Structures are given as structure tokens and as C-alpha cells.
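Backbone-to-sequence.
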């Protein structure tokens, strides 16, 4: 195991309805590479996870409220999916502001499945090439994105993937992209 992300602080923006595997696996890959992760959410306490959007799948403790979070506190951002999770995030002014500011910062952002819904609400997909769960692709196109059907797409600092089946490729791309940002090569 390499620790190329040692010292990197990654925010994970999620709320109730997050797809458990889409939070667990990327977080495990990030922590395995040495990153410190924090779950940022809309409310204190715990967020309720789901499996396949339908079945309860435990909970995650919240580390920080998005209303109190600053882009300056993190070097990268992860936006997991699940249908209910980003649908709630995109309705919250603080969450949308946080995502918009993060995208404007030039720091790396990774999003999977329905996660890009929040990016669209933050007007952060216009002119970007990305992928997502099939049911939100029209929304992303309408928000100005170039949407493709690929396992993982890297567009500058943005990494996106379609869903749980793509998690191995997504996790590898996220660690690689975040490591490049954490250890830039002089050029």
C-alpha cells in the first residue's frame, strides 16, 4: 500500500439516502492511500445510507455541517450518489454554494452515479465532459455538459463514473487524480 495521499484532507458531501457502497469504497481507497476523510452533511448526527436506493444500509457519522464548511479546509471533494442524497443536496443553498466554490477553486472533485446532480445545480458542468447514472444524463446535457457513457471520465480536475459497477475503475482514477493534485509535477 502506498500513501501518496498522506496529509490530504478530503471532504465527502453526503446526506440521507447516500448509496452506501458509493461512499464506502471510494472512502476506503482514499484512506488506504493515506488521505483523511470527513463526512460533510446537512444535519448533525448520522446520515442514513441505502442499498440500491431502496433498502436501509446502516448509517455514517457526520463530521461537519456543510453550512460550517469551507473549501479552504479540504484539498479534494467526493460526491457519492444514490438518488435521494444528491436530490436533497441540490435543494440546500449551503451545499450548492460549497460545491460551486469547490469547482471554482480548481481543486479535484470526484462524483459517481447521481452525484453530478449537485454539480448541475451549482452550474458547474457547463462545457465539461462527464458521465453519470443513465437517468440523469438529460439533466446534465440540459445543464451544458458533454455526457458520455464510459466507465470513468476525467476532465481536468473532475472525475465522474456511472455507478456501482464502475467502482474499481472510479476508485483507482480518484486516487490517481487526487494524488496528482496533492503532489503536482513541476512543469
Amino acid at each position: 500500500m502506498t500513501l501518496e495521499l498522506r496529509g490530504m484532507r478530503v471532504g465527502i458531501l453526503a446526506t440521507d439516502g447516500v448509496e452506501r457502497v458509493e461512499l464506502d469504497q471510494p472512502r476506503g481507497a482514499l484512506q488506504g492511500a493515506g488521505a483523511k476523510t470527513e463526512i460533510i452533511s446537512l444535519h448533525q448526527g448520522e446520515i442514513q445510507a441505502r442499498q440500491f436506493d431502496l433498502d436501509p444500509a446502516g448509517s455514517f457519522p457526520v463530521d461537519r455541517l456543510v453550512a460550517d464548511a469551507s473549501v479552504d479546509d479540504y484539498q479534494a471533494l467526493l460526491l457519492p450518489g444514490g438518488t435521494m442524497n444528491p436530490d436533497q443536496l441540490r435543494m440546500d443553498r449551503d451545499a450548492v454554494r460549497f460545491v460551486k466554490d469547490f469547482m471554482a477553486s480548481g481543486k479535484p472533485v470526484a462524483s459517481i452515479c447521481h452525484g453530478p446532480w449537485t454539480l448541475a445545480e451549482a452550474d458547474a458542468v457547463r462545457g465539461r465532459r462527464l458521465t453519470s447514472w443513465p437517468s440523469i444524463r438529460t439533466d446534465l446535457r440540459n445543464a451544458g455538459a458533454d455526457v458520455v457513457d464510459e466507465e470513468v471520465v476525467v476532465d481536468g480536475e473532475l472525475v465522474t463514473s456511472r455507478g456501482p459497477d464502475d467502482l474499481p475503475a472510479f476508485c483507482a482514477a480518484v486516487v490517481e487524480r487526487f494524488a496528482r493534485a496533492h503532489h503536482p509535477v513541476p512543469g
